[in-house]
Amino acid sequence: MTHQDFPEQLLSIGEFSSRSRLTPKALRLYDKQGLLCPAVVNPSNGYRYYTTEQLDTARLIGLLRSVDMSLRDIAGLITASSENRQRAVDLLDQFLVDLEARHSSRRLLVRHVHTILREKEHTMFSINVRHVEAQRVMSIQRRLHASETDAFIAEAKTAFAAHLGDAAPMGPFIAVFHGIVDHEHDGPLEVLQGCGEDISPTDLIGVRTEPAHDEAYTTITKAQWDFPAILAAYDAVACSPEVSSRTASELSCREVYLAEPEDIGDDDLICDVAFPIGAQARPV
């Protein structure tokens, strides 16, 4: 398109930046992401020009980025607003629900740190120790980042259920963290489901015996399970006397599930955060 295709005055990237309160760097990023593209790019010098009508979109982007909405979610909301305003409102309402949940989760983690600073040996969590018998389990392991865990766990649960057929699982669903899983680290993460002796491995599903062990654990609610609040539970168990008084175990920390997240409320119990432990440490 050329300048002649736009009867209204075009704005240079500098002018548009000033009026939209978005930096030229941000505008170039949003162009690259397909979120807010220039109306005209001069083919001879690469100069970018915007229309005044695009200021409304720029305004939305600036406001939504200020509340940490992702570019992907912003793109979906802007598309929805051009097609169905009510759909855009619904998306924004859901974002607000998620935002409040994240705020609550961060508050729980800060409360844990606050407790540590004031009363070093007291936490919000009750730590217990139990013995877990050896168990035959189905296993799927994968390297992935935090954003990929929900899809992986759903895929694994579906695969386990299909492989079991009419047979009932012989124990809880367990997520074993052999390494850190977050936005920068990719685990690996292994998921387990107890099974009978008649279950054989497949190309996707391994079958092995999880050894008998003791473990220290705390049981948490769905609200405490949400990230990053769950880090408080991990810290509480890992730093507890129940763990520090034992020798280290070769087994990795885990989440042992008591319920499906979608079936319970925030105050209901969802899983145990557990650390396998060795024998009682000898006094030095």
Question: What can you see in these coordinates?
Answer:
This protein has 284 residues and is α+β, with helices and mostly antiparallel strands. The protein folds into two domains: 81 residues, Multidrug-efflux Transporter Regulator, Chain: A, Domain 2; 150 residues, Multidrug-efflux Transporter 1 Regulator Bmrr, Chain A (Alpha-Beta Barrel), CATH 3.20.80.10. It is built from nine helices and eleven strands. The strands form two sheets. An eight-stranded antiparallel sheet has the order 4-9-11-10-6-7-5-8. A three-stranded antiparallel sheet has the order 1-3-2. Helix 4 runs antiparallel to helix 5. It is elongated and about 75 Å long. It starts with 10 loop residues before the first strand and ends in a 7-residue tail after the last strand. The mean pLDDT is 91.
Beta-sheet strand percentage? 15-25%
CATH topology of the largest domain: Multidrug-efflux Transporter 1 Regulator Bmrr, Chain A
Number of helices: 9
* Residue runs with pLDDT of under 50 for 5 or more positions: none
Q: How can the largest sheet be summarized?
A: 8 strands, antiparallel
CATH architecture of the largest domain: Alpha-Beta Barrel
Strand tally, please? 11
Number of domains: 2
Strand order in the largest sheet:
4-9-11-10-6-7-5-8
Give me the CATH superfamily of the largest domain.
Regulatory factor, effector binding domain
H/E order of the elements? Answer: EHHEEHHHEEHEEEEHHHEE
CATH class of the largest domain: Alpha Beta
Measured distance between first and last alpha carbons: 79 Å
Secondary structure category: alpha+beta
Morphology: elongated
Tell me the Rg in angstroms.
26 Å
